[in-house]
Amino acid sequence: MTTALLSTAAALHARVRGGRRAVVMTMGALHEGHATLIRSAREIAGPDGEVVVTVFVNPLQFGAGEDLDRYPRTLDADLKLAEQAGADAVFAPSAVEVYPGGDPQVRIAAGPMGERLEGASRPGHFDGMLTVVAKLLHLTRPDVALFGQKDAQQLALIRRMVRDLNFGVDIVAVPTVREADGLALSSRNRYLSPEERLTALALSRALFAGCDRHAAQEALRARAREVPSTQARAEALSALGESRAAADAHAVATASPGGPAAVRAAARQVLDEAARFVPPLELDYLALVDPSDFTEIGAGFTGEAVLAVAARVGKTRLIDNLPLTFGAAS
After folding, report:
1. Could you tell me if 261 and 268 are in contact, meaning their C-beta atoms sit under 8 angstroms apart?
2. Whole-angstrom distance, CA of residue 156 vs CA of residue 162
3. Which residues bind ATP (predicted)?
């Protein structure tokens, strides 16, 4: 299969469509994470459908002092990767094609969710992101659009925009792809020196530490629910290898679901250690949030949550997250 390279919406609209069109939006510098998105799009579109990959470095979502000018442009390599992953077309428009009148006067506002976490660190970023996503949805006219879970707040805002503004498109999330050492795949990883990369691994290690703490607490809660509060309970807990007294185990098990504070503390410990590395990790935020609005969850929270982190290593800013389920929902 030969993947078509298109630069205008007119050329894309002229293509004959059979089945569903699935779109993967990127800013280029494609890697295995993008390839996973494209392969997932291929499965959804099916043999009769069409997979379109957009490549556009959106100036609206870069703030002052960010890396717009040095953001990698690798269109030839992107086209090759997209073709190998199963894309039918790569849509790589110019800024004039996307914004024919210059910077748009009318833009999408991300609202309160867009002012938290990434939005607080990068004011205006999500307004620019949603504006270009809205534009590209109109330009590509897909039935389904796929986005990576690594950009969890972006994903949540896109879903909210599509719902609030009645876009006729399905939004599909694809799990984060990681390198063998755990680092989440990102186009910005190429900026890291070998020493900086070692420090950057603290982001994923912190998330996994929080996840492990959460899993241990949930396992203890499940064990406690299965054993009556009697002498048999103490004997059963002992048989399971618990070293604490049954009363202590019961107190932990019946505490607030999953212990969000303990999850945060386990992750924070790893990040605090990395702050003393050479080069150091400079933490932007660590948050455990409700994915519906990205507000911090409290002690009594049950349901889906996201443990998210952002930090800078040298001149490179990285983000990562893991989904968790708290309490009865797990």
Report:
1. no
2. 10
3. 27-34, 148-151, 177, 185-188
Q: Does pLDDT of 256 surpass 50?
A: no
Q: What is the rounded CA–CA span in Å between residue 51 and residue 85? A: 10
> Considering only CA atoms, which of 83, 28, 81, 80 is closest in space to residue 51?
83
Which residues are known binding-site members for beta-alanine? 61
13 is catalytic: no
- Least reliable range by pLDDT among 37-46, 49-58, 64-73, 174-183: 64-73
Write the DSSP string, 25-58: EE-S---HHHHHHHHHHHHHH-TTSEEEEEE---
Residue of 59, 208, 54 whose CA lies nearest to 137: 54
Write the CB contacts of 252 (distance below 8 Å, at least 6 apart in sequence).
217, 220, 221, 224, 244
Q: Can you tell me which residue has the tokens 């929270």?
A: 301
If you average pLDDT over residues 179-201, what whole number do you get?
Answer: 95
Binding residues for (R)-pantoate: 61, 154
If pLDDT is split at 50, 70 and 90, which confidence band does 174 have? very high
Say if residues 308 and 285 touch (Cβ distance below 8 Å).
yes
Best CA proximity match to 263, nearest among 318, 321, 311: 321
Taking the whole predicted model, whether its pTM rises above 0.85 is answered as yes
* pLDDT at 68 (0 to 100): 78
Identified catalytic residue from 13, 34, 138, 214? 34
Q: How many CB atoms lie within 10 A of CB 313?
A: 25
